[in-house]
Amino acid sequence: MSSQDLIQELKERAGQLRRDVLEMVYRAQSGHLGGSLSAADIVAALYFHHMKIDPQNPQDPDRDRFIPSKGHAAPILYAALAARGFFPREDLWSLRQIGSHLQGHPDMRKTPGVDMTSGSLGQGFATGLGMAMAGKLNGQDYQVYCLLGDGELNEGEIWETAMAAVHFKAHNLIPIVDFNKVQLDGPVSEIMPIEPLRAKWEAFNWHVLEIDGHDMNQVVEGLAEARRLDRCVVIIAHTVKGKGVSFMENRHQWHGQAPNEEQYRRAMEELGGGQE
Amino acid sequence: MKGKALRDAFGEALIELGRENEDVVVLDADVSGSTRTKMFGDVYPDRFFNVGIAEANMMNMAAGLAACGKVPFVSTFSFLACLRAGDQLRTSIAYPRLNVKVGAGYGGMSDSFDGPTHHSLCDIAVARSMPNMTVVVVSDPNQTKKAVKAVAAYDGPVYLRLSRAEVPYVLPEDAPFVLGKGNLLREGSDLTLVVTGVPLARTMEAADRLAKEGVQARVIEMATIKPIDREILVKAAQETGAVVTVEEHNIMGGLGSAVAEALVQEAPVPMEFVGIKDTFCESGPYDALLDRYGLSVDDIVSSAKAVLGRKSRVR
User: Fold this and answer.
1) CATH of the domain at A7
2) If you classify domain B183-314 with CATH, what class do you get?
3) How far apart, in whole angstroms, are the C-alpha atoms of residue B68 and residue B54?
4) Chain A residue whose CA is closest to B47
5) Are B57 and A126 an interchain contact pair (Cβ–Cβ within 8 Å)?
6) Chain B residues inside the 8 Å CB shell of A115
7) What is the pTM for the complete model shown?
8) CA distance A47 to A39
């Protein structure tokens, strides 16, 4: 596949993941849309290109791991796992319902392909560090990808881990900040500012790659570069909360709100669906 | 009776365990000299992570190591393990049932001079109310070594409460350690003393004193608080008709509560609770603190007499 074909395919995958996320949250009338839509391109690149995973062998000890430390982005992870064949796509419509294996936040014991239980913010990054250290101890070459929310960076534990990962030379741990600039209560710049973000990571001795998290070329190149470099690399992905749905973009009200029927139809149309 | 510090027993046990199982890793948060995990770190530096003063990060690192097949022992002071890193313990270890062993050092008031900030008197309540969590409290140096091996052999999260204190060898050296099983240390038919942790020696002394007054107290040492050994408790309640629990913990939520929960359903009998009476304590010499805050031998004896009085009125 030429690189342009790859990029085109990943874009289409991301589009489908966005539509699935919208439908999941609409059907459940519960769930987090904004932060799933902002991460869609990154997750599509990981699950359809970068990560070494096998849906037939979800517990392969040598697989790459992905932890949505911002666990409320569970819908985008579930959509990707279903699309990769870890479980049937129809399961997506049972999100958050009694008896479903798709919990409100990821549960590694219930959902095939989920590498770690997460959702209480600040923890997934540190868990990823533990996984990275296990890989180093065992001489395995898997990578551990952690998706961090920008609001999540308010949590002190994130910076404990940022300190420790460099000290322990966890070069197989790749945090990706979904920098969509909006947290639950409002803009990050108003609720609890995290800038200068690049300087913060650099002060912790991280190499920083800044990318446009919706430019698939940059996403693919950034993830490849992070894996190639033999040092601690963080990807700061500039993204838009609610990306792809005009009336959700950049609006904190859509952090954890489900659309009504009319909103759902408009959103699906904007995401290139609506024909079904 | 010559004794040994339980933390030293813990450190020695970890070295033995590390030799037997190369998947065992140890994490500590800048108190490895105090908890004695440094002993493991000196022998197995590649499998030892000193994370600095960052308990939350440490707890999650252990979760990640366990998720990838390692057998992590996380070590810090017990109040930090269950409270500072309590959400990490609940969400990332208990909930996904990961194979992490929490070596909760400095249990109870064993860090006595450092005062209430460093005392740990609600940790058993916190740990045992987490689903999937096994809770063990050690009381004796030999038992500590056996307990470390037993919890390592068990696949699942364990909160292992340790102690800074030097305690006498009370248990027979060949006493087996079985997770979930209480130890019958002394037969008796008048009442039962159920004890966990460091107050074991005091409880044995109280039983001796009661015997001199003609009261035969059964003594059960209960290292596993969860799952609790219902069988031994129900039998004791039915045969002796009265129970006193003894623990270095708030009387709310610890051993006493666990025993009461078990007995009230199957064999309700009069009970008394010896422990810390829902208060913060203070700095001071350890033994004097235990005496002052409700864990003296006199306290155990008087609670035994109180429960005997209630038993006689019931019958």
Assistant:
1) 3.40.50.970
2) alpha beta
3) 22
4) A137
5) yes
6) 67
7) 0.97
8) 12
